[in-house]
From TrEMBL:
Residue ranges crossing the lipid bilayer per the database entry: 60-86, 93-116, 122-142, 162-186
Pfam family, one: ABC2_membrane_5
Superkingdom per UniProt: Bacteria
Keyword Transmembrane helix: yes
InterPro entries: ABC2_memb-like
Species of provenance: Ligilactobacillus apodemi DSM 16634 = JCM 16172
Stated name of the protein: Uncharacterized protein
Keywords: Membrane, Transmembrane, Transmembrane helix
Amino acid sequence: MAALLVMLFLKEAGTLFLAMILPLTLAALPTSLLVADHESGWEQFVGVFPLSKGKIVLARYLFCLLLIILVSGLVLALSLVAHAIFGQYSLELHLIIVGVGLLFGILYVVVLLPFIYSFGTFGNTIVNIIFLALIMGGGYALQKTSFGVTFITWLTQVNKVLLIIGTVLLLLGGTLISLQASIMIYTRTFTA
């Protein structure tokens, strides 16, 4: 309901904002899940289940990633409706913003989960500081150096399909590395 109100009052700019902010908001879900696990005493019962610790960690990854993908799909549908109604921005801009929101949401979860398993809820603070530094440093580098112009020129000239495939492969590789690290940390932390 709130998303529809944002779309009605802010038009397409509101849906573009939602496309960026909703996946990132949901990406912080592992912190809430960890707090709920700790308060309910989940760590005490995890050893009794006939599931390996790797499957438990994999389930957490799949839940968080699928939730971000689902919300990004809903925001994409909302963006398409807003574009059809208002037509203020190009369709390509909507697709790019939804894709970037999805990418940042997944990247945040992939980086956050190993830190959560390693440092508890303080891992969220560490990841927020890392992301803030990367975003500020990246923004500064794009604005103040010639790298920004070179990078943007390269993005406009590269084959979009290859760029998407390369990004997905890099993200998949990073996710697998993150998953293995999380399994190792979780197994070490919660040995029965």
